[in-house]
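Worked example 3. Consider a protein that binds uridine-diphosphate-N-acetylglucosamine.
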Amino acid sequence: MEQYVIKGGKPLVGEVEIGGAKNAALAILAASLMTEETVEIDNLPNVTDINALLEAIERIGGHIERTGAHSIKLNCAHIDSFNIDCECIRKIRASYYLLGALLGRFKKATVPLPGGCNIGNRPIDLHLKGFRSLGVNIDISHGMINADSTELIGSHIYLDNVSVGATINIMMAASMAKGNTVIENAAKEPHVVDTANFLNSMGADIKGAGTDVIRIKGVERLHKTDYSIIPDQIEAGTFMFAAAATKGDVTIKNVIPKHLESISAKLIEIGCEVSEFDDSVRVVAKNRLSHTHVKTLPYPGFPTDMQPQMVVTIGISEGTSIVTESIFENRFKYVDELTKMGANIKVEGNTAIIDGVSGYTGARVAAPDLRAGAALVIAGLAAEGITVVDDITYVERGYEEIENKLRNLGAMIEKVNSEKEIQKFRLRVS
Ligand code: UD1
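Given these inputs, the predicted complex is written out as structure tokens:
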């Protein structure tokens, strides 16, 4: 088991380059199997969730050629199975995208019920409601979702909840349905738009992605494309909060500042200077930051995937802050870990009441999920003394070489895999 070991207390200073959006890449890779022609994808993050999905696609007959550190060629002309049941796919939430993609092209699929981070009840009823509405028969047995139909027929679908996954999944299947589909109350996240742009570049006819009504005219076939994935809004936001929490000065490059507006607004509100450029943002924090109230909401609201990083930052800001988690009810599990570092946070249901303390102290903590793991790394960077973060496989699901990127900003952080190495780090930095 590997850990991050961090000696905190040093402001992060410098420039960091953001990779491609993991959540867009997961959908786009799945959508790639909807054509038998070769798809070239660039700006693909090299993280474990992506590699798990690539492995699953290879197992059903996809051919993948890595053409660079962040680019691949994918050919799915010879898909020979519609039943995906490997260990790799059980680990990731986005396995559900294979359902929409396979249904679109082959009208049938068998996929395990999704895994992923345990951040609360994560039903997929809306995905299934959408597929059923397109004429798909669905049966769940022995942990598998079995879906098939003779033909997908366009339909009018209203999503009761705003769901990123359901919006993208239905959009993929409907792209190759007969006739027109309308998705109402659709999610507007940047990765919904990116997936729609990708599908359109393959010949799909999708309009309205990025608004709450998406209109899709089904097409018979999709073709090859060459596509570059958008920058990762959440990776960028994580570095923005890391800069704020350590009182640093960091320029975050290769971003779309518009996607970061809700994050920038909160950072400005608590006292940071945020400057926006064409494809970068600079975050400077000089003085002690102050409190705020935040409620997580679907895009363009404040993202639930940034909630733990935000809490860690306001946990050492002046005054009392209130954070309401409205998307996933179980997303405050890291608070117990943060308490070990001196935080003063009380969780009541989906609300955290945060009394800012003057600073954190290093401790041994464990990442309970991907984003909370990154938040604990930020806490370690801001803390006095040494922090060890266990269970970093969660963090590696969504952050590529986070320790190297942080080291380039002056952080004292290492990835280690034994108590002996932790000890060596302690000796070296003391
Ligand atoms: C995606 C992201 C995840 C992010 C989340 C919210 C991926 C791979 N993951 O997850 O990082 O935290 O969006 O921005 O892109 N819901 C239902 N029924 C459904 C589907 C969802 O009730 O069928 C509910 C969920 O319980 C949750 C809300 O809708 O309360 C939003 O979930 P959703 O947007 O679907 O999240 P994911 O797509 O799983």
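Take a moment to read the result before moving on. The chain has a mean pLDDT of 95. The two ends are 24 Å apart (CA to CA).
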